[in-house]
Amino acid sequence: MNDSVNPEGAASPADHDGGGSPVLWLAPLLIAVAVIALAWGAIAAANRSPSGSVAVPPTTTSAPGGGSTTPPGDGGGGDGEAAARGEEIYKGTCVACHGPDAKGIPGLGKDLTNSEFIQGLTDDELIAFIKVGRPADDPENTTGVAMPPKGGNPSLSDQDIADVVAFLRTLQ
Ligand code: HEC
Asked: What are the residues facing 134 on neighbouring strands?
């Protein structure tokens, strides 16, 4: 009749036969992996969703003072490539809170252009800052909103962050 039903594997915890037990071990493990994967997916989606619609930089729509968003070769001291890579990283991670023009999104992130804070730090200090962020309860915090470590993207390498810093320098 129904030969495929296997009573050993289903529920026999006292059974010392190793045939059924690995399945019982695997079930909670798989659930844990699934939960972690879902959490990661949610973070990745949160990071990406705003950037998808703003991937095209505004060219002629708004130019209040002459389009200072991306100076083509002005002031470039050989950091142009790093800044270009940094801009891609910025668009992937930081844009969600600091906005496509880096002028900040109210309630999410601050203006990073013409920033006294950025201008007052060395590259190394700025890299160190981005790695730890600024919790909402930090006395230095100015908005009551947390800047998450690495902008909430733990996969960013030191080089990635250095490139983002090179990009931020072009906005000052
Ligand atoms: C989840 C939102 C969020 C993301 C993502 C984020 N930031 Fe921030 N960031 C903030 C907030 C909020 C502040 C302001 C904290 C405060 O009130 O002092 C801030 C502050 C900063 C500051 C200090 C500005 C100042 O004037 O004090 C820098 C620099 C900065 N962020 C860089 C970055 C970079 C680079 C990335 C991407 C790697 C990034 N942020 C991603 C929310 C975010």
From this structure: 147
CA 110 to ligand 1 centroid distance, Å: 6
| Residue 167: burial class (beta carbons within 10 Å; 0-12, 13-18, 19+) | buried
Residue by residue, DSSP assigns 23-74 as HHHHHHHHHHHHHHHHHHHHHHHHHHHHHHHT-SPPSSS--SSS--SS-SST
Cα separation values, 19 from 11, 26, 27, 31, 158, Å: 12, 13, 15, 21, 47
- Separation of CA 68 and ligand 1 centre (Å): 21
Is 0.85 surpassed by the pTM of this model?
no
Name the residue among 116, 168, 166 with its Cα closest to residue 142. 116
Identity of the residue numbered 46? A
Residues 145/104, Cβ–Cβ less than 8 Å = no
143 CA closest ligand 1 atom index:
17
Q: Amino acid identity of 1?
A: M
pLDDT in tens, 48-65: 544 444 444 444 444 444
Q: How many CA atoms lie within 13 A of 75 on its CB side?
A: 10
